[in-house]
Specification:
about 400 residues, Peroxisomal Thiolase, Chain A, domain 1, 13 helices
Length: about 400
């Protein structure tokens, strides 16, 4: 079996459009949540979201390219650009047939879907954009990244709603571990802060209707009342260890375990007892050959919904046993909102940075824990603590559970 390390990272997030900005604001507990500026919310009960700010797609793309890609693809291409620059990979010096891409989106080209359907109804069927289909299909983030970087190996996208990012990274990890690839660009992307996106989740009564940015996304808090929509992309460069060492790459951390399963219970709610998520956590720890006592940090799915938070708390207790009470846990969605298909990817970056720097980000604005939520959720302020292993958990609509186990890089 091959070992798999992280040699590059890129991020477009509500907290900043690069990894360092994102991480610095996570550490300080800043929120990326504010009043929606992308459209008029006069007729919406939901007023807040975690929007990407000051995004310049032309940092890594030509202007003409942006016209042919939905926003979710633009986010992915720019996060991938930062990750590739960070990795120092010379495309001409690697085997492009063993260089792949696994990047997914929970929804795909939502912005283009809404714009073009409205246009069709207002101006007629012959006014539909010629590239409508390739702009909206969810695999095109992966496809466009592969085209840009001549990645001729595996190119696919996993679509598992809010578990998408973790599943993409996990599948990339396994692909390298079993010797099929040397390098894979992996992660998730989403751009769903539009009228139909907010209205759809609002109809599900899933979104917070709070008007206070600091009390809207409050995972594990007794006053939580729904999640806050976020957007952006997270990309990791996963690389086989010997391949990375041979080219002198900087190594940020190691991916050592992956657990994925299904609750097979409900379209939108997790199993109340958390048993499905717990099994995924155990699978990740088993593959990592680690114990519950060695898990120093869990970046929880922590959506701030009535159903998720106690169920996930129960899952952690089942998976870790007595060690659950001493394990540090936080939900960075308290600051980023919920990036749906990109959530697991930016949270994996947060875990790698936590391992690298020995700092665990907080659950910002957590004041009083809810009934059934009685673990150590690192309220308000992050803490300095050196840890060896971290878990990142993602639980998606449809019952999808995806858990990554990552390890601090301590040398070969």
């Amino acid at each position: 079996m091959k070992r798999v390390v992280v040699t590059g990272m890129g991020a477009i997030t509500p907290l900043g459009n690069d990894v360092n900005s994102f991480w610095d604001k996570l550490k300080s507990g800043q929120t990326g949540i504010d009043f929606i500026s992308k459209f008029d919310t006069e007729n919406f009960k939901v007023k807040l979201a975690a929007e990407v700010k000051d995004f310049n797609p032309e940092k890594y793309m030509e202007r003409k390219e942006t016209k042919r890609m939905d926003l979710f693809c633009q986010y992915a291409l720019n996060a991938a650009g930062e990750a590739m620059d960070d990795s120092g990979i010379d495309i001409e010096k690697i085997n492009q047939d063993r260089f792949g891409v696994i990047v997914g989106s929970g929804i795909g080209g939502f912005v283009t879907i809404q714009e073009q359907i409205v246009k069709m109804h207002e101006k007629g069927v012959n006014r539909m954009a010629p590239l409508f289909i390739p702009m909206i299909i969810g695999n095109m983030a992966a496809g466009n990244i592969a085209i840009k970087y001549s990645a001729k190996g595996i190119c696919t996208s996993v679509v598992t709603a809010c578990a998408t990012g973790n599943n993409c990274i996990g599948e990339a990890f396994r692909n390298i571990k079993y010797g099929h690839s040397d390098i894979i660009i992996a992660g998730g992307t989403e751009a769903s802060i539009i009228e139909s996106g907010i209205a759809g989740f609002m109809a599900l009564t899933a979104l917070s209707e709070s008007s206070d940015p600091n009390r809207a996304s409050i995972p594990f808090d007794k006053d939580r009342n729904g999640f806050v929509m976020g957007e952006g992309a997270g990309i990791l460069i996963l690389e086989e260890l010997e391949h990375a060492l041979k080219r002198g790459a900087k190594i940020y951390g190691e991916v050592v375990g992956y657990g994925s399963n299904c609750d097979a219970y409900h379209m939108t709610s997790p199993t109340p007892d958390g048993s499905g998520g717990a099994k995924a956590m155990k699978l990740a720890m088993e593959e990592a050959n680690t114990t519950a006592e060695e898990i120093g940090y869990i970046n929880a799915h922590g959506t701030s919904t009535e159903a998720n938070d106690p169920a996930e708390t129960s899952a952690i207790k089942i998976a870790l046993g007595d060690a659950a009470y001493s394990t540090h846990i936080s939900s960075t969605k308290s600051m980023t909102g919920h990036l749906l298909g990109a959530a697991g990817a930016i949270e994996a970056i947060a875990c790698i940075k936590a391992l690298e720097e020995g700092f665990l980000p907080p659950t910002a604005n957590l004041k009083e824990t809810a009934e059934g939520c009685d673990l150590n959720y690192i309220p308000v302020n992050g803490i300095e603590k050196n840890i060896k292993y971290a878990l990142s958990t993602s639980l998606g609509f449809g019952g999808h559970n995806a858990v990554l186990c990552m390890k601090k890089w301590e040398g070969k």
